[in-house]
Fold this protein.
Amino acid sequence: MAGIGNYFHGEKGKVLDLYLLPSGDMLFLEMEITGNPHRKYAADYGSDIGIDPSIRVGDRVVYIRADFYGGIWVKEGNEYSRNLEKAFERVCIFRKKYMDRYMDQFHNWEGSKESYEHPHTLIKRLANKSKIPLRFEEENVPSDVSEIEISIFLSYSHKDEEIGQRFASDLKKEAKAEIWFDRWEEKSRDPRTLLDEWLSKAISDCQSFVAILTKHSIGSDWVKKEIQWANEMSIQKKNFHLVFLDMEQVGWPFGETKNGKLIDCYELSKGEIAEELYAAVYGRIGRQQWLKEQQKKSSWLWRIFGWLLR
């Protein structure tokens, strides 16, 4: 269940730092962010991930995935066309004026050092013109910024243990989440504690509940009990997230206890399932919902993103 290029639609954060970083023959636009559970840094290498150069320190930003692998970081509020299209245009112009020019100068200088100025002299002038601070690699010391963590109870049928194990491992690694997975917790269980009490307390101690819905799990009495306890917890806790992953098009078989977000995983890749799941767990708008809104507003985005990838 690897992510789409390890970037997930709807990621958000606040910009702590933004700077130009020359490295060999390439010039990067790098951004340090806080409040994002997936990463501390994002960088525009002039390829599939863009950063709107109008972003400044202190802005709140969001990542928009435009196609299967690539996307753009923009200020919150610019997630849809026409603002999104303008952000793509700024990325294209910035890359041509600064990144491409630096690369050309670097190769010219390497070919004839006597005829061309040192690329670092050029980049200092370009940085002044762009109004974005310049850093060199030896100055770029990552700071210790804490990452957000969220605790998740994973509910599944033991007949689907392989699926459950994979989801638990990927959530722990990619969503930076603390996962309560019964197979990992069995050794810590007090033998005097009843199974019902052990499971219900674990759910109440978590911030989110994720159930994997399959033909096996919808027939499991324990999964039904866990969903009931989680539903009760969502009534008690305002920010308690319930997420249900429909892996086999079983729909919603639990009657009036339905609460939370049901994700139809049919025709979604593993990365897209992960992306929708992380959006639900962290209370973000999923890409499938964003796509519906974007398609209502404009079809220009896809043409502009094609320019970006050239």
